[in-house]
Write a structure and sequence with these properties.
528 residues, alpha+beta, four-stranded antiparallel beta sheet, two-stranded parallel sheet, 14 helices, 6 strands, rod-shaped
């Protein structure tokens, strides 16, 4: 048994440093930072700011030329024909037709030449025969007989035309093919450049509106940031308050247990009755229950803070102000003029920006009523090449440049009504902005008064605690001297407990009032 008694304290001493090392000490600034880093709401708000920044860059791109490249492909099951089928047939057979005509012409010419040669021969023979001397000399000569034989064998009717059908047909077929472009597979590409010159102010106002929208997203982020900070402050000081009340409950329970012990001694000595001991016993049990509730409340409050700062709920944390004897008194923010408050409050900035955004939106709607001018330039290339007899090549393209002007005339007053709607929305946000200014003025004034009331309450609670402590000291001395009964001592202890609790509540209330005042004055922005 002695070994066990020695071992248990040794184990406790070894485990205590481990438990202490597992605890994490956090200041209020640490809690703020961790809550900001782990807040899903703030993460979404940061994403909204990032998206608004991209929108601003998108609007800025409208100032620059729009350069694009487009490529297309198309398959056709038929070619186009620039001439009819009849004309195509005549063109492909033009050589055959010309050959037939030429052959006929040569045949007619040969017949005429043969008749003329025969007549001339007859006339020559007649002339020779009428002259006996010539007839005797030539008619019998071998040379003459050879000439007569050659003349008789000549066939002028068989005069042949040259062969032109095939080459002319080839020429016709080539021309016909050119008049039937191959468009089964069409490829085309175009490079386009468009530069807006005047869009009625739409591009300018769109960029201004995008910049305002980005500021609006930042303002909404600041509003979410302030809500996160105030929630952390509330959870933090609630833990400090509960921890202080836990220590108070321990002290109160200790006083009652000591009183219970003293009365039990007096009962044993016969000075006091058993009823007096039972009365103190009831109060002691109530103090123990109060201590249990304080410890459970502290555990739950720390779990809530862990949830808000992104730690596991069962994390062992200790706050820097948790064990302080007196809750620190926050310094009151210096008075700010109300216009500075309006400028710093996210709510008024959001409404003001929203009003400006809808003013720009109205101007954008008005821009749709104005003419629009843009410069264009294109380079087009195709296969078949339309600039080279529809040949299947990529050689050569076409460049063109020009200007386009669009003048809206009438579309059911659509643009006009959109302009009027945007103006009405701008007026709506202007009215909300004016109303918000009045509410903020009321809120700042109210929080300032609440801070002063909390400070006065803290002063009174401090004074009451001093009186309660003196009363408890006197009652305790009197009870020990036997001149004061136990009821008076317990009443003094209860009064001391109440005064101490009120002082803790007043200190916590003052901290929350200071935080609410900073929020009302717009001092909880991230850049503050």
């Amino acid at each position: 048994m002695k070994m066990i008694k020695m071992t248990i304290p040794a184990l406790v001493c070894l485990l205590m440093p481990l438990g202490a090392a597992a605890q994490q000490t956090l200041t209020l600034e640490d809690c703020h930072r961790m809550a900001v880093d782990n807040s899903k709401t703030l993460s979404q708000a940061r994403t909204q700011v990032e998206m608004a920044g991209y929108d601003r860059k998108i609007a800025l791109a409208n100032y620059f030329p729009n350069l694009s490249v487009t490529g297309t492909y198309q398959y056709n099951d038929r070619d186009i024909a620039l001439i009819s089928d009849t004309q195509s047939a005549a063109l492909t057979n033009m050589g055959t037709t010309a050959q037939a005509a030429l052959d006929g012409a040569f045949a007619a010419a040969g017949a005429q030449m043969g008749a003329a040669a025969q007549g001339a021969m007859t006339q020559l023979q007649t002339a020779i025969m009428t002259n006996p001397a010539l007839a005797a000399e030539y008619m019998g000569s071998p040379m003459w007989q050879t000439v007569l034989g050659m003349l008789e064998q000549m066939d002028f009717g068989g005069l042949a035309a040259p062969a032109i059908a095939e080459p002319i047909n080839a020429i016709g077929q080539s021309i016909d093919k050119a008049l039937h472009p191959d468009i089964h597979n069409i490829y085309a590409g175009v490079v386009s450049v468009q530069q807006p010159v005047f869009m009625g102010g739409k591009i300018v106002y769109s960029n201004q509106m995008a910049a305002l929208a980005e500021e609006l997203a930042r303002s909404r982020y600041d509003q979410e940031y302030a809500d996160v900070i105030i929630d952390v402050d509330q959870a933090y000081w609630q833990i400090v308050s509960i921890a202080a009340k836990e220590r108070l409950a321990e002290s109160y329970a200790g006083l009652l247990h000591q009183l219970e012990h003293d009365i039990r001694v007096s009962v044993d000595e016969g000075v006091m009755t058993e009823a007096d001991a039972l009365q103190v016993k009831v109060k002691s049990n109530e103090a123990d229950m109060l201590l249990t509730k304080s410890r459970n409340g502290l555990t739950l409050a720390k779990m809530l803070l862990c949830k808000r700062i992104g730690l596991p709920l069962d994390s062992e944390i200790v706050l820097a102000d948790e064990n302080t004897e007196v809750i620190p008194i926050p310094a009151k923010e210096a008075g700010k003029d109300i216009e500075s408050v309006y400028a710093d409050r996210p709510e008024t900035r959001s409404l003001s920006l929203a009003s400006d955004i809808y003013e720009k939106k109205a101007k954008i709607a008005r821009a749709d009523l104005l003419p629009k001018v843009a410069l264009t330039a294109n380079y087009l290339v195709s296969n078949p090449n339309a600039f080279n007899g529809f040949s299947n090549t990529w050689n050569g393209g076409m460049f063109n440049a020009g200007m386009s002007v669009n003048i809206p005339l009438f579309h059911g007053f659509e643009a006009t009504n959109r302009y009027r709607k945007a103006k009405a929305e701008a007026t709506l946000y202007q009215d909300q902005y004016k109303d918000a200014r009045e509410l903020i003025l009321l809120q700042v004034t109210q929080q300032d008064k609440l801070y002063d009331e909390a400070m006065e309450k803290l002063t009174m609670a401090s004074s009451n605690l001093e009186s309660a402590e003196e009363n408890l000291r006197s009652a305790t001395i009197g009870f020990e001297a036997g001149v004061i009964d136990s009821d008076t001592v317990m009443a003094a202890q209860t009064a001391w407990l109440q005064a101490s609790s009120e002082l803790i509540d007043a200190g916590t209330e003052l901290q929350m009032a200071a935080a609410s005042l900073r929020k009302a004055q717009g001092e909880m922005n991230e850049n503050k």
